[in-house]
Amino acid sequence: MNSPFKTGSMGNREPFSAFICDESALDVLRPVVIEMGWQPEKCNKGGLRNAIQSLSIAASPAILMVDLSESGDPLNDINALAEVCEPGTVVIAVGQVNDVRLYRDLVASGIHDYLLKPLSAGQLRDALTQAQSVFASPRNAESDGEREHVATAVVGTRGGVGASTLATSLAWLFASEHHRSTALLDLDVHFGTGALALDLEPGRGLTDAIENPSRIDGLFIERAMIRANDNLAIMSAEAPINSPLMTDGTAFLQLQEEFRQAFDMTVVDLPRNMLINFPHLLTDVNVVTLVTELTLASARDTIRILSWLKQNAPACHPLIVCNRMQPGTAEISKADFEASIERKINFQIAFDQKAATNAAKLGQTFIEANKSSKTVGPIREIAKMIVGVGEDDGASLADAGKKNSLLGGFDFKSLLGSSAKKDKASAEPAE
Questions:
Q1: In CATH, what class is 16-135?
Q2: Digitized pLDDT (tens) for each residue of the chain, 431 residues in all
Q3: N or C: which end of the chain has fewer CB within 10 A?
């Protein structure tokens, strides 16, 4: 995801400005600035708060260097800086605190780099050269061709089947192994675990969007989403449980529209009640990943949700994933389950309590914490299949059903809907 600061181009703006607290650091900075071909007069005395005051009444430069040495709350002040900075500003912070956590939080907030005092000419030269390269290498420069945006909604047939675990793992795979910029939207506004699985604070992005849909635009997305890594950002909430969800769903549609513009992939962790209350959430979703388990209740609700999807979201292609598989302990057999839903289970994921515990302890997604485990193999295959929908050849799931699978041996015909028997049964009146 692009940060609140690092988007756009230099355009006609001033190339550089700095706000530094002490003269010794300014003495090191000015010669480097002259070497870069910029005006040394743009190196100002004063720290982050001076930068905020100045930029609230003046245009932002392309590259901004700010000193955090006199800031009592650097993260809060950086957020205040984002409010006055124009989109496209690359921010380099300078400070005295050698703290990995602070560095990580600053980078997550959108800062391009953080330099420790005392400053050296070589350190400054490298940082400023890297900042310039942001403008020389726009976001899509690395792409050989245009990719279609692909959205998947992950829905659990029952609570506790592992839909959120799968959603966060898929998002992590898209971002980290498939190198797609990915948005994770956790729509369990009160009890969502997406941010928790990524060891992040949920922030107020989603609640702000619900309360003020008119504010949603590209800049809002950049500032409101929480970045997990360079390619993955999440929007979630932890709303008070005494505050009911009051929305007509407009905000969710607008968020998805902005995600299409800003990301290659969108993963929506979609609770069942949201699916029913806001059916338009699936308007532009390519694949509905339906997570279930081998129980009678899950079989019943899989049938009901598949029927609902057929009537209300016919353009979405359902993918049946049976999670928490335990040989010999299932409530009903796989064969009976498939017979009852009148279609095959597309993927099976084994139950692995040790792996789940390991992920929770590490504060990582299930797949990130267990990369070498056999349990995660099917999750990788699911991700590969969904990514394949947006490949440059424009292949969709519907087209793929007419040729070989994107995975080689998998038959997409079993993915694309109910059997002729089911269609016939649904057309006939019940006796």
A1: alpha beta
A2: 344 444 444 455 788 999 999 999 999 999 999 998 899 999 999 888 889 888 888 888 889 999 998 888 888 888 888 878 877 788 999 988 887 777 777 777 778 888 889 999 989 998 898 888 776 544 443 444 455 889 999 999 998 888 999 999 999 999 999 999 999 999 998 898 888 888 888 888 888 888 888 888 888 888 888 888 889 999 988 888 888 888 888 888 889 888 988 899 999 999 988 888 888 888 889 999 999 999 999 999 999 999 999 888 888 889 999 988 877 778 889 999 999 999 999 999 888 888 888 888 888 888 887 877 778 888 989 999 998 886 644 344 444 333 332 333 333 333 333 333 444 444 344 33
A3: C
> Rounded to whole angstroms, what are the CA distances from 124 to 111, 113, 134, 216?
15, 11, 16, 36
β-sheet bridge partners, residue 408: 405
pTM: 0.59
> Are 176 and 368 spatial neighbours (Cβ–Cβ below 8 Å)?
yes
Domain boundaries, the chain: 16-135, 150-399
| Helix orientation angle between 163-176 and 377-388, rounded to the nearest 10 degrees | 60
**How does DSSP classify residue 61?**
P
Torsional sign, CA 341, 345, 351, 356? negative
> Can you tell me the distance from the alpha carbon of 378 to that of 233, in angstroms, rounded to the nearest whole number?
24
Domains 16-135 and 150-399 share a fold: yes
Task: Find where tokens 């260097």 sit.
Answer: 65
Q: Are 97 and 69 in contact (CB under 8 A)?
A: no
Yes or no: say if 81 and 49 are a contact pair by the CB < 8 Å rule.
no
Task: Give φ, ψ of 401 to 5 degrees.
Answer: -65, -15
Cα 172 to Cα 73, 90, 198, 364: the distances in Å are: 31, 26, 9, 10
Which overall architecture, per CATH, does domain 150-399 show? 3-Layer(aba) Sandwich (3.40)
The DSSP string of 340-366 is HHTS---EEEE--HHHHHHHHHHTS-H
3-state SS class at 229: strand
Paired tokens of 179:
């190198």
* Element holding 233 (H helix, E strand): strand 232-235
